[in-house]
Amino acid sequence: xxxxxxxxxxxxxxxxxxxLFLIFLSNLFYQYAQYSNFKSDEIYVSDAKVLxxxxxxxxxxxxxxxxxxxxxxxxxxxIKYKVDEKINLYINTQNINFIDYLKGFYTTSFNxxxxxxxxxxxxxxxxxxxxxxxxxxxxxxLFKALFWASPxxxxxxEQCAIFGVSHLVAISGFHLGILxxxxxxxxxFPYKAFQxxxxxxxxxxxxxxxxxxxxxFSYLVFTNVVPSLLRAFVMFIMGIYFLxxxxxxxxxxxxxxxxxxxxxxxxxxxxxxxxxxxxxxxxYIFLFLQYFKDMNKVLAFLFFxxxxxxxxxxxTHFFFGTTSLVQLYSPLFTIGFSVFYPVExxxxxxxxxxLLDSLIEIWLNLRVLSExxxxxxxxxxxxxxxxxxxxxxxxxxxxxxxxxxxxxxxxYLS
Length: 414
Fold this sequence. Notes:
Elements: H1 10-39, E1 43-55, E2 60-65, E3 70-75, E4 86-92, H2 98-103, E5 105-106, E6 109-114, H3 122-132, H4 137-148, H5 154-162, H6 166-169, H7 173-198, H8 204-222, H9 227-245, H10 252-265, H11 273-291, H12 297-319, E7 322-323, H13 330-349, H14 357-365, E8 371-372, H15 377-389, H16 394-413
Parallel strand pairs: 3-5
Antiparallel strand pairs: 1-2, 1-4, 2-3, 4-6, 7-8
Helix pairs in contact: 1-10, 7-8, 7-9, 8-9, 9-10, 9-11, 11-12, 12-13, 12-16, 15-16
């Protein structure tokens, strides 16, 4: 059966765009109302959750999340706060405009007080379980980042960047894809037996996909709605719906709709780098599938991760300049991670999460030379334009391939 397009006429596309635009405006007005309330006094009092702590020489920077916004402030006291702790503080609202409010801002604060918690949260209990399975705190931190997007320290973050595996540590669609497959097959056989007996008329695969969606939604909330994971989840849900309606799933129009949908409902994510990295990754995956669909399956499997890595390098290096020759092994690390991640999930579930710690410690202790090489702005803009024009035009796609080859030669050989 031939898949149908998402919309058949310009009028239908206009209607979709108009509805989403109205949703975007309503959410933007809501955010502005929250901002006006925030700015109504010079001092705003709020509870906040500590999302991350960035140690400095004489003080530390706290990344805090309130019910309405996320912001940064400095802590120059002797009290050291920990991730996931809750505090109450007075926030200086001066010199903060609406765009800063949406993006996340830095401001001064005072009268910070720790809110005592009488019980551990579910995440804190899981954190304790993971900590008990490891003797190395960095390894424990690494797995908490992999499992529920807990922040990692500066040294570990730099090690991931040097080896080109930051995209593996930051939870994204790659992780959601692995999780969805695991959940699907865990549910499949029990549900098959139950469904065959009580309601054989139901579409088994569709039902299990819906159940998987509910579990993934709970996981999304558990991770505090990581932007890259949100993008993947929305695509997953839309994929289920489109599959049901026989609408083409793997298309740039679908990706565009997902992005617009997310921004319409969550205007703040317009400024999220992690969301745009996630979108860029899917964009180049779709380009690969469009132009290399007739390639030999084995060759395509081997070439896929290499091409995606090289294609997205000009974009990632515009924001993060850490560069080393060992990053060229990133496609192999990505393939290996497809096995490593589910294995570690199972090992941690049965209490043997530290089984491979000796191998991870070897990696943590490796020291590789690196330098900062940033994509020039004109190269970044040109590359994005070439990439967009590559969607309908094979000639532009050939130009894109020449561009990514030239860039990576310059990046690693200059």
